[in-house]
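Feature request, filed as a ticket because there's no other form

It would be nice if the structure record came with a short human-readable summary line next to the tokens. Right now we just get the raw output. Example of a typical job, pasted below so the devs can see what we mean:
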Amino acid sequence: MLLTLLLASVSAHAAQDVLVPEFTPGTANDFGVSYLIYDSIIYDLMDRGVDVVDADAIRALVGDRADSCSEVSECPDELFDHFPARLAVVGSVTQVADGLSITIELHDPNNAVPVKALSEVIPPGGEYEFSADVAEMVQELLPLLSPRDATTTAPITNIEDDFQDLDDVLDDAFDDEDDGFDDVPVYDPVVEDDKDDRPPSRVLDDDEQRMLGVGNRAYQEYRNAGVPMDMWASDVRLRSFQFSIELLSGIGVGNISDAYDVRVAFDVDQGETLDTFQSRALGGGASFQGGLGLGYHPRAWVETSLLLGFQRGSKDLSVGWESYSGADKMDEFSHSYAAASSWQFSMEPRGRFFALTTGVVKPYGLGGLSVRILDGYEVPESGLVDYPDQAGGAMLDLVVGAGVMFDASEYFSVFLELPFGFGLTQLEDTLVESAALSATPDTNDPSRTLLRISAGVQSRF
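Raw output as currently delivered:
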């Protein structure tokens, strides 16, 4: 405050370089971004050694007459009556769907029209480059200008002739295709005073919210923040329109153990098979499981993905036979093989639905369908019996669950989740009934459920 009063008190006696009144926000929701651009230009000017009279110093001397300066055609001229500066930077800022719509006019004290005028839509992330370009333009113009009450330099009476060479240089620097800077028409008081001819400054809220991909609560949070869209999205770890890849591992508990039993009855006199019994089912167990996921976030609150998973299960095989001569049972045999390891693979299209779309911690629910593919069985042959093999199988599970994501940065996260699968289909308990066999084993009590406890990392781009 002391500095502001000091600047105001000496302003009538010491010449300043540039006046920068506070930029005009396009709507009530644009105060934050308007001040951000204003403050960035002030910083870049001072960084270049330019003597700046800021909005606080201006307001201390002339009150609120410099507020909304870009909307009052007489405002720059009135400021030069109070401040012996060589240039005034007047601007307005409005949020639009593609970023920020910024209009900058550079006024000198000896002419009624702007020295330079820029009107540009700056995409998210381009605010600081734009402010640096404006500061460079101001620095180039200052040596050619003089204060209104100066006696050492003649007033500038023909702006087009005096600035033609400089304008050519600035056109090369700021009006090429890469920068997209375009001169607006030279200020015409008759035309500019007709406010109806100006482009509308109303923000298309629906388009802006759609571009962020957020709900009403998060969108209101963004509007209250008053910062550029890309800065806010980075700060709150927004996921909209990002692709993702993730790796996970954990433990699966449930229907993992695969068991197959096959038995044959045959006639020793005729040398032919009388009957066959086959049974296959999944029983309870626990195993290591992992997966690779590929996803896309069409909105901040939803993620769609395909999880390619695997888990290590077990395979149990038991066989037996009975021999008959006519109606008489002659002999029987039964044998169980040692359990063998097997890999079960799955494809799981699924979705995550986030309860919170902003912040570091994001709890979510998940749901999907999992197709699990199982190994087949090749049964060793016996000297008396040729046992039938068993082909691989597939099961369809409904998957629901919950988890929590911890966003370490805008593009990297760790997560913990508990998916629960319920079998919509399962392997048949008894594949082939047998009337001839006198003794068949009890089949596995089939399990339909599988709980997975998984942790993983996710990278987004």
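Something like this underneath would help us a lot:
The radius of gyration is 39 Å.
The CA atoms of residues 99 and 126 lie 9 Å apart.
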